[in-house]
């Protein structure tokens, strides 16, 4: 992390705040995004500082009903004054150089400054798009606008800050339970929280009973991003929202991919050191690094954007963010790639026929014209999307449907098994599915993850433009280009050296041992440039002598080529030289920090007496170069969780 004063030397560019608020015109926005794409680390750090600081400022000022504020303002357009912008920029700059313990003073300074200025908020910060067809997919009931509350960092069409005495907040009773919405929004208890499949944490297994562990690889990261959104909104995630492997796999660990010209598209790395939460146990990190492919050199892509435009997508962290995210992806594609846009709500529709990316402006115009309204029937939309994908199928190319939704499939839920079967059939014919989740509320995480798994795809949660850039620009090769299909991992431990073991995470990806060699069994896909990490905690046999010359186990990876055919196998030994945690590799130590964060939040019985403070310390001591700033952002998130815990 940057120390006091280090960040303050850089002059704050007001365009950075305007970029996050969605105010920049196309040319200025493109300039910012080009700089980010070219690796401007200072700009990226500045954006992350603002992204982290703005929600806290919102929480200090309070929350206001969008509907009521719109009525009070009479629909007039208001802008945040330059002086107010300057106060926010200065505070965010100072926040970059300080821990969260210094933030109350910074926030107080901003509040005092804004009170003197008398300019609390801005309305309609995105420039209006003039022209194009609006695709309003029916079902809007009209009448009084829906009452909604802001839940964290929404860089939105409408974001209202007014005079302090007019700011409203949830009732203290609701807030004490962690709910930041309005009482009117509660409805039934089923609507309060997302739907998540229950997770039974993996326990230790005696090697005398079973020395093997077999699971399907998983590259999803949605759980970490959703947890980040929860904490920034002022509440902890539910235990069932936390999939620890997705915390671990959100980060890169520097594992080397296979050298050019080698047989396999995957390379294996193993590392061992003491477990930080129990020094008597050993922690094993297994890294699987995929071959990198220059995105411009890959085969053409036939993509169908399947966009949920139902009424539940109206809030600023949903459809407006979907539009910006898909715009980022469009800018990342080559001219000969093709994009179609299918929308669904009360009925499905083709918003844009398959169009070459060379006609980029037409695609962006169609995206900007999307409007929300109606209830959700995701099944019909997916069927249409697959029909469009099949009609434009690229032989030996990338054929993929990209579903963008909050997962609120409240119409046609009884057809989910048939829908999953359809997705699996389409995947077997060469059309994969990527699922991007947006928003919170009735977010159907379990359904979205399950559908992406059946569709040979991946599942990511997008809570900001920066996350969209990570998934759809920086890691676009891994998101779209598959290098290994149906990838499975099996680890076999030596019972003479390992008394017992447990896998950390991957609870819903476990396979029968016999499935490892059965090519008919579906598993996980690995994209170009992806690095997948698995952690095991093992208990050595009492008195066993650990030596790097003797393997304590063997890792086996079995995968199928993207074009199909018989599976292939690669193996690597697991050797333990007896390193303490502090002596262990940086990658293992940071991976342990990410895993411990998830386990502490879940209340795991296996994390011992570890606290969020321990997690933060372990992470700070293993930051490394951190070129993208993600590890520093992780430390800031843990600090925010500590502050939330202390309330």
Automatic annotation (TrEMBL):
<dbReference type="Pfam" id="PF12450">
    <property type="entry name" value="vWF_A"/>
</dbReference>
<dbReference type="InterPro" id="IPR036465">
    <property type="entry name" value="vWFA_dom_sf"/>
</dbReference>
<dbReference type="InterPro" id="IPR051266">
    <property type="entry name" value="CLCR"/>
</dbReference>
<feature type="transmembrane region" description="Helical">
    <location>
        <begin position="103"/>
        <end position="123"/>
    </location>
</feature>
<keyword id="KW-1133">Transmembrane helix</keyword>
<dbReference type="InterPro" id="IPR022156">
    <property type="entry name" value="Uncharacterised_YfbK_N"/>
</dbReference>
<keyword id="KW-0812">Transmembrane</keyword>
<feature type="domain" description="VWFA">
    <location>
        <begin position="302"/>
        <end position="480"/>
    </location>
</feature>
<dbReference type="InterPro" id="IPR002035">
    <property type="entry name" value="VWF_A"/>
</dbReference>
<dbReference type="InterPro" id="IPR021908">
    <property type="entry name" value="YfbK_C"/>
</dbReference>
<protein>
    <submittedName>
        <fullName>von Willebrand factor</fullName>
    </submittedName>
</protein>
<dbReference type="Pfam" id="PF12034">
    <property type="entry name" value="YfbK_C"/>
</dbReference>
<dbReference type="Pfam" id="PF00092">
    <property type="entry name" value="VWA"/>
</dbReference>
<keyword id="KW-0472">Membrane</keyword>
């Amino acid at each position: 992390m940057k120390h006091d004063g280090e960040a303050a030397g850089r002059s704050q560019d007001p365009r950075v705040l305007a970029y996050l608020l969605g105010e920049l015109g196309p040319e200025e926005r493109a300039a910012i995004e080009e700089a980010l794409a070219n690796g401007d680390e200072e700009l990226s750090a500045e954006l992350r500082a603002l992204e982290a600081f703005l929600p806290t400022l919102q929480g200090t000022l309070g929350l206001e009903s969008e509907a009521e504020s719109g009525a009070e303002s009479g629909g007039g357009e208001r802008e945040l004054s330059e002086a107010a912008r300057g106060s926010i920029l200065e505070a965010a700059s100072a926040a970059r150089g300080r821990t969260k313990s210094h933030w109350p003073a910074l926030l107080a300074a901003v509040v005092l400054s804004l009170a003197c200025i008398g300019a609390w908020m801005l309305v309609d910060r995105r420039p209006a798009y003039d022209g194009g067809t609006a695709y309003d997919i029916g079902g809007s009931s009209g009448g009084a606008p829906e009452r909604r509350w802001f839940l964290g960092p929404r860089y939105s069409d409408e974001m209202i800050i007014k005079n302090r005495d007019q700011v409203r907040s949830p009732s203290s009773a609701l807030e004490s339970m962690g709910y930041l919405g309005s009482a009117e929004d509660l409805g039934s208890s089923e609507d309060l929280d997302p739907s998540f499949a229950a997770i039974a944490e993996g326990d230790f297994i005696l090697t005398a009973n079973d020395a093997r562990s077999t699971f399907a690889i998983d590259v999803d990261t949605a759980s970490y991003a959703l947890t980040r959104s929860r904490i920034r909104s002022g509440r902890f995630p539910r235990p069932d929202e936390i999939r620890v492997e997705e915390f671990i796999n959100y980060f890169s660990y520097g594992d080397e991919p296979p050298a050019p010209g080698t047989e396999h598209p995957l390379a294996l790395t193993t590392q061992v050191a003491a477990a930080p939460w129990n020094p008597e146990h050993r922690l094993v990190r297994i890294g699987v690094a995929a071959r990198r492919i220059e995105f411009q050199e890959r085969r053409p892509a036939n993509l169908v954007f399947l966009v949920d435009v139902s009424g539940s997508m109206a809030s600023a962290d949903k459809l407006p963010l979907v539009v910006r995210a898909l715009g980022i992806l469009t800018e990342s594609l080559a001219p000969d790639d093709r994009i179609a846009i299918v929308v669904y709500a009360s009925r499905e529709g083709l918003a844009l026929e398959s169009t070459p990316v060379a006609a980029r402006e037409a695609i962006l115009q169609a995206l900007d014209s999307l409007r929300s309204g109606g209830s959700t029937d995701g099944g019909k939309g997916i069927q249409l999307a697959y029909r469009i994908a099949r009609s434009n199928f690229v032989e030996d190319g990338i054929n993929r449907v990209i579903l963008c939704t909050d997962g609120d499939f409240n119409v046609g839920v009884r057809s989910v098994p048939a829908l999953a079967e359809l997705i699996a059939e389409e995947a077997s014919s060469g059309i994969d599915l990527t699922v991007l989740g947006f928003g919170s509320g009735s977010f159907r995480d379990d359904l979205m993850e399950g559908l992406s798994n059946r569709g040979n795809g991946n599942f990511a949660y997008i809570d900001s433009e920066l996350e969209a850039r990570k998934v759809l620009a920086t890691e676009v090769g891994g998101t779209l280009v598959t290098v290994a299909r149906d990838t499975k991992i099996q680890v076999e431990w030596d019972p003479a050296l390992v008394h017992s073991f447990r896998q950390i995470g991957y609870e819903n990806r476990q396979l029968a041992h016999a499935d490892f060699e059965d090519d008919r069994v579906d598993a996980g896909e690995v994209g170009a440039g992806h690095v997948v990490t698995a952690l095991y905690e093992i208990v050595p046999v009492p008195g066993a002598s650990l030596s790097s010359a003797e393997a304590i186990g063997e890792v086996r990876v079995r995968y199928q080529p993207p074009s199909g055919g018989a599976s292939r196998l690669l193996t690597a030994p697991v050797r333990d030289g007896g390193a303490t945690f502090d002596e262990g590799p940086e990658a293992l130590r940071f991976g342990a920090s990410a895993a411990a964060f998830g386990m502490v939040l879940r209340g795991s019985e296996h994390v011992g007496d570890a606290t969020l403070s321990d997690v933060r310390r372990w992470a700070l001591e293993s930051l490394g170069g951190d070129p993208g700033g993600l590890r520093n952002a992780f430390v800031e998130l843990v600090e925010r969780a500590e502050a939330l815990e202390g309330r």
